[in-house]
């Protein structure tokens, strides 16, 4: 069953910030860029991170599309600690409405740099080198025009006109990139909500995609998220999807040349209103485990349930947050405005939509980013290290980046 444009899933709105993506511009300065999508103004934008310039007031960041979620190794359930007061501190996590960064401007973001306003109903964004020139280009998925498009980076953060890959992704929701056919360049994948379609588009090596949409599956009922990982350990990139009507987390085996056959390999149908899928080696055994976030059962799962305390779970991500060498799980939940990683990081993300982790300030530890839709906020939370042990022990909130 496919739903029309007037029937988006629960906890969604077409007029809010959607995806946050951390990326590096492969130029001399290797600055960090963040891209933003907001359905109400059809805008794709990025924000310059200056590691030397003076900080700007009210910097801005963006959400991740890189998709989260479902089934894999055994992880002990976590209990989210209670938020304490307006600054939301919980067992070593703190959220503060001011910057805690040094005077060198690391992790500070400048004004919004608009890439395009032609993404009608922008939903998803991703960054990768599509044309093989060594810098990071930008991809977008927009639902009102059914469009997957990309924007070429000139090497200094300037972007050309919108280059349309397809307008056949009906109510496009998610976009991702990986070398699907093993020819050394980055191909593009999409999930579209209205036609139940998971598809990919072959790159000719210079950012040309032709007119062919290569359909992987149409049996994911209203897919919201796609992710790529080597699930079966054969050296090629397989595809994962999360679809909300059939509560399904599934994967599709790649034959090494971009052929996926007709078989959808179901991981779980117990993710009630599946919203996000992600893959990482969670148990250190060398293979890829799958995580999911599902909204109606408040569940973060990875083979076993990790938590059911994420009220309206919509996003999941994994990164080594505490520097101990293994992957920790982060979640965003819209019902309780919560960003969490075993313990609560913040409950100030009003209508939390997306969570991501990256080293935003270049200090060697992982910081947390969030996108929340009811306050139209992009924010990040600073990880800092114990002065003697040198390991990350806390997350602090430097401020809103939007």
Short description:
Helix content is 0%, strand content 43%.
Describe this structure in words.
The structure is a single chain. This protein is an all-beta fold and 402 residues long. The protein has no helices and 28 strands. It has a four-stranded antiparallel sheet with strand order 1-2-3-4, with no helix packed on it. It is globular and about 45 Å long. The chain starts with 16 loop residues before the first strand and ends with a strand. The relative contact order is 0.18.
Write the layout of secondary structure elements.
Elements: E1 17-24, E2 32-38, E3 43-50, E4 108-116, E5 122-128, E6 137-142, E7 147-151, E8 163-166, E9 172-178, E10 187-192, E11 197-201, E12 214-217, E13 223-229, E14 238-243, E15 248-252, E16 265-268, E17 274-280, E18 289-294, E19 299-302, E20 304-307, E21 313-319, E22 328-333, E23 338-341, E24 343-346, E25 352-358, E26 367-372, E27 377-385, E28 392-400
Antiparallel strand pairs: 1-2, 2-3, 3-4, 5-6, 6-7, 7-8, 9-10, 10-11, 11-12, 13-14, 14-15, 15-16, 17-18, 18-19, 19-20, 21-22, 22-23, 23-24, 25-26, 26-27, 27-28
General form: globular
* Number of strand segments: 28
Main β-sheet description: 4 strands, antiparallel
Structural class: mainly beta
| Share of residues in strands | 35-45%
SSE topology string: EEEEEEEEEEEEEEEEEEEEEEEEEEEE
Strand order of the largest sheet: 1-2-3-4
Mean pLDDT: 75
Q: In which range does the helix fraction lie?
A: under 10%
Rg, Å, rounded: 19 Å
Instruction: Compute the separation of the termini in Å.
Output: 37 Å
Note the total helix count. Answer: 0
Q: Poorly predicted ranges (pLDDT <50, ≥5 residues)?
A: 1-38, 52-106, 386-402
């Amino acid at each position: 069953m496919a739903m029309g444009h007037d029937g988006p899933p629960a906890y969604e709105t077409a007029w809010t910030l959607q995806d946050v993506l951390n990326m590096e511009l492969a130029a001399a300065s290797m600055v960090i860029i963040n891209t933003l999508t907001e359905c109400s103004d059809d805008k794709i934008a990025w924000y310059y991170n200056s590691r030397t310039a003076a900080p700007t007031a009210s910097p801005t960041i963006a959400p991740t599309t890189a998709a989260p979620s479902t089934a894999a190794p055994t992880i002990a359930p976590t209990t989210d600690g209670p938020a304490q007061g307006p600054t939301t501190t919980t067992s070593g996590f703190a959220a503060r409405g001011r910057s805690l960064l040094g005077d060198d401007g690391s992790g500070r973001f400048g004004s919004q740099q608009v890439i395009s306003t032609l993404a009608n109903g922008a939903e998803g964004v991703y960054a990768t080198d599509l044309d093989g020139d060594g810098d990071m280009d930008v991809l977008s998925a927009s639902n009102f025009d059914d469009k997957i498009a990309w924007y070429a980076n000139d090497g200094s953060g300037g972007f050309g006109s919108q280059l349309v890959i397809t307008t056949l992704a009906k109510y496009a929701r998610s976009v991702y990139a990986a070398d699907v056919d093993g020819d050394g360049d980055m191909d593009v994948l999409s999930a579209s909500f209205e036609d139940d379609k998971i598809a990919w588009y072959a790159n000719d090596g210079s950012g040309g995609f032709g007119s062919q949409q290569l359909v992987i599956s149409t049996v994911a009922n209203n897919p919201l998220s796609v992710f790529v990982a080597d699930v079966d350990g054969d050296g090629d990139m397989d595809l994962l999807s999360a679809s909300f009507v059939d509560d399904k987390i599934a994967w599709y085996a790649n034959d090494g040349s971009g052929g996926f056959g007709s078989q959808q390999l179901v991981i779980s149908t117990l993710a009630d209103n599946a919203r996000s899928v992600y893959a990482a080696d969670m148990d250190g055994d060398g293979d890829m485990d799958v995580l999911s976030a599902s909204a109606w059962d408040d569940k973060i799962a990875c083979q076993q349930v990790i938590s059911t305390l994420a009220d309206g779970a919509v996003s999941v991500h994994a990164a080594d947050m505490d520097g101990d060498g293994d992957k920790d799980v982060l979640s965003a939940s819209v019902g309780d405005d919560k960003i969490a990683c075993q313990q609560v990081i913040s409950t100030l993300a009003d209508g939390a939509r997306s969570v991501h982790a990256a080293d935003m300030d270049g200090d060697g530890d992982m910081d947390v980013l969030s996108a929340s839709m009811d306050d139209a906020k992009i924010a990040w939370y600073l990880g800092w290290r114990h002065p003697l042990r040198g390991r990350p022990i806390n997350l602090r909130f430097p401020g809103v980046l939007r």
